[in-house]
């Protein structure tokens, strides 16, 4: 059985043309260093799922004072 609608391109307005209609929802996976820097396994995770038309990445904490969990990725680093 084939589902051509799911695999066909989709115009997502301002996001542009998606190559298919599959969307990956965000997941918090706690794979960052203690300072919030994503570990190499994070790039592997998204590369393995690159076939989805749209990937919504996991949330991040905006500053060290707003960190909501252990080993969650963050926006603020020493760099």
Structural account:
This protein is an alpha+beta fold. It has one domain. 16% of the residues lie in helices and 10% in strands. It contains two helices and four strands. It has helices spanning 4-7, 40-48; strands at 10-11, 17-18, 23-24, 54-55. Strands 1-2 form a two-stranded antiparallel ribbon. The longest helix is centred in the middle third of the chain and has 9 residues, at 40-48. The chain is elongated. The termini are far apart. The model has no long low-confidence stretch (mean pLDDT 88).
For the structure shown, list the relevant keywords.
79 residues; alpha+beta; two-stranded antiparallel sheet; elongated
Would you summarize the structure shown here?
With 79 residues, this protein is of the alpha+beta class. It has one domain.
Helices and strands, with pairings:
Blueprint (H helix, E strand, L loop, with lengths): L3 H4 L2 E2 L5 E2 L4 E2 L15 H9 L5 E2 L24
Parallel strand pairs: 3-4
Antiparallel strand pairs: 1-2
